[in-house]
Amino acid sequence: MPKKHNFTFSEKVCAEIDLHMLTRVQAEVELYDFLDKAYSLGFHKIKVITGKGLNSENGKSVLKPFIQEILKKEKLKFKNSKLNEGGSGAIDVWLV
To answer: Which among 56, 22, 40 is positioned nearest to 95, based on CA atoms?
Structure first.
């Protein structure tokens, strides 16, 4: 029987990028550049700061759902950061 690997996703954040206040186009370019650098440096976990949308017209984040769709498209595992580490205004992403 093949040995099962038991992966844990509790690694510390290696790097973070702050995208809030950028347009979708700017944020997408910055995110892909950041992902490329993080991969090349061998990082396992990064943080993407999108903001909570408090300054948006409707009070909801414009970037967060957009960034989440990109991460899904790239088949990356992600979740909201812990409350004391950005909460709903930040996303933890695993690059494994």
So the answer is: 40
